[in-house]
Amino acid sequence: TNSQNDALLHKLVHTTLLSGSLAPELNMSSGQRRKAMAGRLMELVGDVKLGKGERHLRKEEHNRAAKNVRDGIAQKQRERQKQELESAKNLGNYHPALKGLFEDDSSSSTPKPRTRGLKMGVGKFKGGVLTLSKDEIEKVNGPASRQSNRGHPYRRR
């Protein structure tokens, strides 16, 4: 029945899929467990990459804070990352090939700047005139067929 299926799904989700966030030996508070579970669910649904769910939730939570608080949190995070990088270099754990592991996730993926307004598919609009290059015209029309019909003007190919 549906209730049995629901119970089975609940057990499956809480024992295998969410096992890392519900481990009792972690001694997490109820708030931490709730955030860990919500983050893991976001990962399972596919909203965020694996292992990034809880961090994404925290980031959303930080975005609701006041601007000066957000700036302070970001500054502290940058300081922590610098310290982590320095300690890795001092311990000999750092190698330039592993640079991505020590960099901030948000700084590595800078979004492409959005072009404002409506954009035409082809050409450049200058001074009230749309100018098209030969390449753009060829892209739209397709490459011109350079073969002649060799004496059969009405034959199709």
From TrEMBL:
<dbReference type="GO" id="GO:0000462">
    <property type="term" value="P:maturation of SSU-rRNA from tricistronic rRNA transcript (SSU-rRNA, 5.8S rRNA, LSU-rRNA)"/>
</dbReference>
<protein>
    <submittedName>
        <fullName>Uncharacterized protein</fullName>
    </submittedName>
</protein>
<feature type="region of interest" description="Disordered">
    <location>
        <begin position="53"/>
        <end position="122"/>
    </location>
</feature>
<dbReference type="InterPro" id="IPR053030">
    <property type="entry name" value="Ribosomal_biogenesis_FAF1-like"/>
</dbReference>
<feature type="region of interest" description="Disordered">
    <location>
        <begin position="136"/>
        <end position="157"/>
    </location>
</feature>
<dbReference type="GO" id="GO:0005730">
    <property type="term" value="C:nucleolus"/>
</dbReference>
<feature type="compositionally biased region" description="Basic and acidic residues">
    <location>
        <begin position="76"/>
        <end position="87"/>
    </location>
</feature>
<feature type="compositionally biased region" description="Basic and acidic residues">
    <location>
        <begin position="53"/>
        <end position="70"/>
    </location>
</feature>
